[in-house]
């Protein structure tokens, strides 16, 4: 029998505030990110004083707190009594073209000009005039900027605007989990960036435990979650990636499983069950958003993880690793069979760094017993499911 509709509106016996458990929730204090927040604030200080500052680019694996920190800083900036700087936060997954980004900036600061009918040139000129009115600095935060379709045009437009602006300027803060995003930039764009770069480290197990404990205290009813669950969630999440987002997904899913079972508590069994769902869900989300050639590299790794290659898979510490060079050969073979151009080995190495940054693979340097020097690769997720997912994504009819 279906659950009565009115029962869906009853108070939960498990959750107190689900919003607190969302990876998009920004708490009033971000644990273990004081240093990173201070670095961002220091880098922004010249711009906030009305001076042309250096651009800032922030890198880090998924779930290392990049977006939370930058949103935290943006809100702090908005609270300051500043008249010489204006700030705009842009989620580039939504505003994924130069036109959309410029229109978002105009919408934030000049709503009457952010209308249909205005082209890029018109909006650009309006922005220049608006900046020059009082010599202000426009700070543009581009979160996940690597997904912008015409990124080179956007970066060139924003950086070169400083040459057109007589009084004031534009500062960029870029956030990405892909070190290779600059590969698409023209040398003219690169030459104008003049940036600071920060890398966010993954959280370790004890840090993840503290983060999970902090969110549980606000997100769950008191005494609902077995304290032993906290360290288990932290250990699972820290194993390969140090991903706080994965930790929050696991504890939230565990609460939902307990709720669906009609229980009034969350224990180890629910955590173990939830971790399988959460890891798979996160893998689908991250891999599904990869560019085509990075997907094909992951596809090659998944195939070789299942079938092996010309060389026997290397086993270290009961873990299976693959040779980087052979993965490249398999990737090249797949790309050629699709009548596409194979990326150079230099780009391949940058893509592998991106995949490791996002927690999709883990790597280590070869050690004793292996002739020469090579990198050893291991897929972080279940190979057969990743293979099936990419086949549906890239090779569907």
Question: What does this protein structure show overall?
Answer:
This protein has three domains: 34-200, P-loop containing nucleotide triphosphate hydrolases (Rossmann fold); 205-285, Helicase, Ruva Protein, domain 3 (Orthogonal Bundle), CATH 1.10.8.60; 292-394, Winged helix-like DNA-binding domain superfamily/Winged helix DNA-binding domain (Arc Repressor Mutant, subunit A). The model has no long low-confidence stretch (mean pLDDT 88). A five-stranded parallel beta sheet has the order 2-3-4-1-5, sandwiched between helices. The protein is built from 14 helices and nine strands. Helix content is 48%, strand content 13%. The chain has helices spanning 34-48, 66-79, 98-109, 120-132, 151-164, 187-191, 205-219, 228-238, 244-260, 268-288, 292-307, 324-337, 345-357, 383-394, and strands at residues 55-60, 85-91, 137-143, 169-176, 195-200, 314-316, 319-323, 361-365, 375-379. By secondary structure, the chain is α/β, with parallel strands linked by helices. Helix 11 (292-307) runs antiparallel to helix 14. The longest helix is centred in the C-terminal third of the chain and has 21 residues, at 268-288. The chain is globular, with a radius of gyration of 24 Å.
């Amino acid at each position: 029998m279906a659950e009565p509709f009115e029962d869906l509106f009853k108070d939960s016996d498990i959750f107190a505030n689900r919003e607190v458990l969302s990876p998009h929730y920004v708490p009033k204090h971000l644990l273990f990110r004081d240093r990173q927040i201070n670095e961002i604030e220091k880098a922004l200080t010249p711009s906030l004083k009305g001076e042309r500052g250096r651009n800032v680019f922030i890198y880090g694996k998924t779930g290392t707190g990049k977006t939370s920190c930058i949103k935290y800083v943006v809100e702090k900036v908005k609270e300051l009594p500043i008249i010489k700087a204006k700030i705009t936060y842009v989620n580039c997954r939504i505003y994924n073209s130069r036109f959309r980004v410029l229109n978002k900036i105009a919408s934030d600061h000049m709503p009457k000009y952010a209308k249909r009918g205005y082209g890029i040139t018109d909006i650009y000129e309006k922005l220049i005039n608006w900046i020059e009115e009082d010599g202000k600095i426009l700070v543009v935060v581009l979160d996940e900027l690597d997904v912008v379709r015409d990124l080179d045009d956007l970066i060139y437009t924003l950086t070169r605007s400083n040459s057109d602006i007589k009084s004031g300027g534009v500062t960029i803060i870029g956030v990405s989990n892909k070190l290779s995003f600059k590969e698409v930039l023209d040398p003219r764009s690169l030459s104008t960036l003049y940036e600071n770069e920060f890398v966010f480290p993954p959280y370790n197990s004890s840090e993840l435990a503290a983060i999970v404990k902090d969110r549980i205290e606000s997100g769950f009813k008191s005494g609902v979650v077995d304290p032993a669950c906290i360290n288990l969630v932290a250990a699972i999440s820290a194993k390969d990636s140090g991903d706080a987002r994965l930790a929050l997904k696991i504890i939230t899913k565990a609460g939902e499983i307990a709720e669906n079972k009609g229980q009034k508590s969350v224990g180890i069994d629910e955590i173990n069950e939830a971790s399988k769902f959460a890891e798979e869900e996160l893998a689908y989300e991250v891999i599904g958003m990869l560019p085509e050639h990075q997907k094909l590299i992951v596809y090659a790794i998944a195939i070789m993880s299942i079938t092996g290659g010309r060389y026997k898979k290397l086993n270290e510490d009961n873990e299976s690793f693959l040779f980087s060079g052979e993965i490249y050969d398999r990737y090249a073979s797949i790309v050629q069979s699709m009548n596409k151009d194979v990326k150079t080995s230099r780009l391949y190495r940058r893509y592998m760094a991106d995949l490791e940054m996002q927690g999709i693979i883990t790597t280590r340097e070869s050690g004793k017993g292996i002739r020469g020097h090579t990198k050893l690769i291991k897929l972080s997720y279940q190979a057969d499911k990743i293979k099936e997912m990419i086949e549906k994504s890239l090779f569907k009819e």
